[in-house]
Structures are given as C-alpha cells and as structure tokens.
Amino acid sequence: MTSATPKAATVAPATTAAHPSMRELDRPVKLTGANAPGWGSDVVAETLRALEIPYIALNPGASYRGLHDSIVNFLGNETPQMLLCLHEEVAVSIAQGYAKVTGKAMAAAVHSNVGLFHATMAIFNAWCDRTPVLILGATGPVDANKRRPWIDWIHTAADQGAIIRNYSKWDDQPASPAAARESILRAHWIANTAPMGPVYVNLDAEMQENKLPEPLPPIDVSRFNPPTVTAASPELVQAAASLLKTAKKPVILMGRVSRSIEGWNERVALAETLDAKVITELKLGAAFPTDHPLHAGAPGGTALGPDAQEAVRNADVILSLDWVDLAGAFKGTFGDVPPQAKVIVVSNDFRIHNGWSMDYQSLPPADVLLPVTPDEAVPDLLKAVGGAGNAPKLATVKKAEIPPLSADKLVVNDLVRALKTAVGDRDVTLAHISLSWDGATWPFRHPLDYVGSEGGGGVGGGPGNTVGTALALKGSGRLVIGVCGDGDFMMANTAVWTAVHYKIPTLIVVANNRSFFNDELHQERVARIRSRPVENRWIGQRISEPDIDIAALARSQGAQGFGPVTKSGDLVATFAKAIAAVEAGHVAVVDVRVEPGYSAVATAAMLRGTEKKS
Ligand SMILES: Cc1ncc(C[n+]2csc(CCOP(=O)(O)OP(=O)(O)O)c2C)c(N)n1
Ligand SMILES: [Mg+2]
User: Fold this and answer.
1) Which numbered atom of ligand 1 lies nearest the CA of 484?
2) Quick one: pLDDT at residue 187?
3) What 3-state class would DSSP assign to 43?
4) CA-to-CA distance for 563 and 573, rounded, in angstroms?
5) Which residues surround the ion ligand 2 when the cut-off is CB under 5 Å?
6) From CA 587, how far away is CA 513, in angstroms rounded?
7) Which atom of ligand 1 lies at the shortest distance from residue 513's CA?
8) DSSP string spanning 225-286?
9) CA-nearest residue, atom 18 of ligand 1
10) DSSP symbol at 221
11) Whose CA is closest to 9, among 104, 111, 78?
12) How far is residue 582's CA from residue 133's CA, in Å, rounded to a whole number?
C-alpha cells in the first residue's frame, strides 16, 4: 500500500501571502508604538495570520468591528488581506472560487445574523461543491447586560449557527479569546479535511472588544492541523483491482477530484491501463481529457449523454470516483433496476451526510467501497492493476475542430466557438459556464481548464466564483474566463467591482438571452402537459423591456464593458479586444445577446415526456 501524501494544486496556491501587486492596495497608516495583541479580536487575527490565510473577503458590520480593527491596525491588512465585497453572497462565492483552484480555504467575514442571511446561498453552494471556506461572523454581546439598545439586540440570536448548520461542516461560538483561537484552528482543519466544506465561527462582539487581560501562551498552529490523508485497506484495493483486471468493458465515472496534475495523469494512466471508457460531467471541474479516445461522448450537465449511457449500459465493471449522483446515473440508464455490472465506489462523502440536506443523492449499489478520496485511491488502484509508472499516451488526444458560426441568429454555440477561436492556444481556465453551455464544444485537457459549477444549483454563483478563481490564478499566466447567464450575472454582478478594485484580471462573458430561460423550458413543459398555450412560457421569465445594458453596468464598476454583441460575425473581434484588456491587467465584461435556447440534447432532456400529451 502506498502511503498517500497530500497532492499540491498545480498552480501554487497563494497560501502564505496575498499576490504582491495586491499587497500594495488599501495600505493602512502605520501604527505608532508597540504592536502587541491587546484585545480579544487581536487573538483571532493572529490566529488567521498563523494559519497563513491570504485573504478575507468581507462585507463589514458593527458586530465584528473589533476584528475589523485587528486586521487593519494590528495585522496591517496583510495575511489576511481584506477583499471588500458589495454583498455577502459574493464574498463567500469568491472564497469558493479560490478554493476550487487551490483546494484550500481562504476566509470570508459576514456581519452578524443579517450578513450570514445574505451569505446562505453561497454557503449552500460551497457545501454541495465540497469546497472549504472559513467563514467568520459575529453576534451582539452574548451577555445581554452589555448590549447596546436595539441594534445589539437585533444582531443577536440564540443559536445563530442554526442558520447554516445544516449545510456546513461545523460551527462554533467561542466565549473567550483562547477558545476563539482553538475554534479557528479546528474550523480550518475541519474545512480542509475531505470531504471538505464551509465552516462558521461566530465571534461574540464583547469577546472581540474586551481587553486581553494577559497574552495567551504561544502555540505552533501546525501541530493542530495534522494531515488526514489516508489510504484504503490492501484487501479492499485488491478486491477492486481484481474486478477491474478481469473486466471486459470497464467504465470509470470521474467525479470529485482535485486540481492536481499528478492526480490527472494517474487517472489517465488508470483508464489507459484498463482500456476503460471514461465519463466526466460539467457539474465538476475537469477530471480527464474530454477529447481523449476513451472519453465517452461530451461531458453532460445534469444527466449522462447518449454515449455515456451506452458505455454504462454495456459495462461489466463500473468504477465511480466520487461521482456526485451515481444512483441517478444508473436510474437514467437502467430505470429502477440496478445495473448487473459490479460497482466499485471510491468515496468518503458519506462521512458528512446529514439528515437535512439531501444533496447526498439516491443510494447507489456498492459491491466494493473504498472509503477514501479518488486522489488517495487511484495511485493504489493503478499499482494493483499493474499500471504504475505508465506514462499517459497523450499523443492519442484528437485536435478538436471548431465548427463554423451560424450565419443568421446568434446562438450560445456561436459564443463558445468564437470565444474558443479568440483564445487560440492560450492556457484558459473556465471558471464558470452558463446553463446553456454545450459540453461538446470546448475540450478540457488539464485539471485547471475548468473548475466546475457553483455546486448547489444556486444561480448567482458565477460572478463570484469567477473572481475567486481569477484571484487564485493571478500571475499564473492562465486566462480566467467565466461565462455567466444574464440571470446569474445580474444576481451577483458586483463581484466585478471587487475584481476591479483589487486588480484581479478576468473576463466575464454574459450569455445574455434576456431571460431566466431555463425556467421558460419548465413553463413550456407544464403547459404542454396541461394542454395550455406554450407561447406564454416567457411571462415572469423574460428580462427584457428594458434590456439591461450589461456593458454599461460593468463600466459603472470600473471594468471594461464590451457589447452588446448581436451579430455572430462581431464575436471574435470583440473577444480579442476583451482578452487584450484582461492581458493588460483589466477586468472585461462582454455582453453577448444570444437567442434563447439550449443545445438540442439539453432541450430534449428538459421537455422529455411531454410529447404525447401536447
Ligand atoms: C438562487 C436561485 N434562484 C432561482 C433559481 C431557479 N433557476 C434555475 S436556472 C434559472 C435561470 C437562470 O438564468 P440565466 O442565468 O440567465 O441562465 P439561462 O437559464 O437564461 O440560460 C433560475 C431562475 C435557482 N436555481 N437559484
Ligand atoms: Mg438568461
């Protein structure tokens, strides 16, 4: 058994400091005199520093004014550096985007109960995405005697953590600076331990603002964050390997995996050694080259595509590397009868399933379970099937042709094809893709080519996730692009201001169909089933009259706004200008007015079953 070691992200995460160019921003006036921890919140700040938390995305509030002061005046707004956000949902989704790349939690701070209420959608997204985020919040003084009239009382709830407890890994309300230090160490450790997820530490305002009676004894924080990387037992690995070795038509569903290139190469070697068909999905970051000859069809969104279904149908052994909805994939393929094939599940996700959130999905059959992460299991499986040391045969990857743009109406595929043409050979990270994205059009060949969706289906994650991803990749040479729906963009467009202010170059392309179009299809479905007019599907969905000037909205926040682009012939040139702006260090937003409509596969999937009754 190999003793698994933690895998580093491909691009070194900025865990020790903010990016050099950002460290020059928002510089506080230097404190005169000694700078020793003198207040409760200084201990909290010191602990964040000791953990080398590079950034804290926040929206301010009186409940944590003590901590705010400690970060600015005690730490000098460095490690962590503040990233001001105009909405708490954006703060948390920036932290999520950052962790998608680095695999590590940065911090977010939200004001008492009200800021936490705003943050909930993004916390749920991070939870479903199994992404670590260290969220700090605050409450009015727990001691009612210390509360200011009215305002401190409305900032105080008996069990504030209950707001997010059902979709976070852990929460706490420490009552003293020493307890706060311990709480943050524990929170950081839990968040970054697989299955990863958001954690919340609620800091009592009085605790923050009280004078520290005496300094706390120093501690070495590394001793309180031990690695938890583990390995499956040799017997289980052998059981899985013997099924895989004798399989005639193995299939691997590659789900939640890290951004490590080493892990990527090991998965390629495993698939090639076994000659297994591979399936990936757009909910998650790139897990395998999507134009590799073993990749079955294009990666799907919510359901398996036809090629992927065929591979599963014909399989005699199925290996799931933490696929999000394995039972759902089986139901989509076989109906209610579980597959005859032997099923090997690699996942430790069950360790955080709870009674509230059903994001754990339907229960899949598991003939062999390796209760570890895919990154931990694959090296052992590879060795056991005799493929260790096999170099990936990347030469077999086909070069994708970019199909021509449509001549008349501008559709989403034109946007994707023109964007692909405009980026050329650059290393691009797709930080987000719109609901209308067709997975066939843009191959992934590196774990950082795509970092996955917002996770919990919460619209409004796209802009923040894009900025957080761009933050983590700042200076890496990768061009970070987030393609957002107009609905998604409008819900959280103020992430643009944060990117501009902190000089985080990124390109946001808005697939602007002037509608919450996904739901037009839902209304069409219902109308068809009920024999009612499908023509009315747009009412309560269309974001038109007035059409929103997205480029102007971007410009108003200091970004370079392009468009609206209404002709496919103008796309490549506009994208080229926007990319040049990003490469010159700016934030660019391109408004592309696409016709409402999804790919034929996606539309058919959403309207399936309505044909007979209409
Ligand atoms: C927070 C939230 N509100 C509402 C929804 C329901 N919903 C799912 S997709 C969608 C439309 C999103 O619109 P847009 O981003 O423009 O993408 P489009 O459907 O037009 O391609 C909506 C409203 C949701 N998933 N999340
Ligand atoms: Mg839309």
Assistant:
1) 15
2) 98
3) helix
4) 11
5) 485-487, 513, 515, 517
6) 22
7) 20
8) S--------HHHHHHHHHHHHH-SSEEEEE-S--S-HHHHHHHHHHHHHHT-EEE-BTTB--
9) 517
10) G
11) 104
12) 27
Angle, helices 374-384/261-274, rounded to nearest 10 degrees: 40
Alpha-carbon span 379 to 262, nearest angstrom: 10
CB distance 518 to ligand 1 below 6 Å: yes
How far, in Å, CA of 568 to CA of 593, rounded? 10
Q: Does residue 460's CB lie within 6 angstroms of at least one atom of ligand 1?
A: yes
Local confidence band at 405 (pLDDT 50, 70, 90 cut-offs): confident
The predicted-structure confidence for 423-478, as pLDDT tens digits, reads as follows 999 999 999 998 778 788 899 999 999 999 999 999 999 999 999 999 999 999 99
> Which is nearest to 562 in space by CA: 574, 573, 572?
574
| The residue type at 190 | I
d(CA 258, CA 378): 12
CA dihedral 258, 263, 264, 268 (to 10 degrees): -140
**Cα of 311 vs its chain's centroid, Å:** 28
**Atom number of ligand 1 nearest to Cα 458:** 26
Spatial contact of 253 and 272, defined as CB atoms under 8 Å apart: no
DSSP assignment letter at 513: -
Give the percent of the chain with pLDDT over 90: 86
pLDDT in tens, 570-579: 999 999 999 9
8 Å CB contact between 505 and 582: yes
Q: Distance from the CA of 465 to the center of ligand 2, in angstroms?
A: 18
Which are the contacts of 91, defined by CB distance < 8 A and separation ≥ 6? Answer: 57, 58, 59, 83, 85, 108, 109, 110, 119, 122, 464
| DSSP-assigned letters across all residues of 374-411 | HHHHHHHHHHHTT-TTPPP-GGGPPPPP-PPPPSSS--
Q: How far apart are CA 427 and CA 354, in angstroms?
A: 39
pLDDT at 9 > cutoff 70: no
CB count within 10 Å of CB 35 equals: 13
Give the tens place of pLDDT for each residue, 177-223: 999 999 999 999 999 999 999 999 999 999 999 999 999 999 999 99
Q: Which two tokens stand for residue 97?
A: 């985007």
Angle between helices 517-529 and 600-607 (to 10 degrees): 40
Beta-carbon count within 10 A of 475 CB: 13
**DSSP code, position 594:** P
Mean pLDDT along residues 605-610 = 72
Beta strand extents in 505-602 (DSSP E only):
506-512, 560-565, 587-593
For the record, the structure tokens of 529 come out as 């089933």
497, 86 contact by CB (below 8 A): yes
Cα(516) to ligand 1 centroid in Å equals 5
Can you tell me the distance from the alpha carbon of 317 to that of 341, in angstroms, rounded to the nearest whole number?
Answer: 5
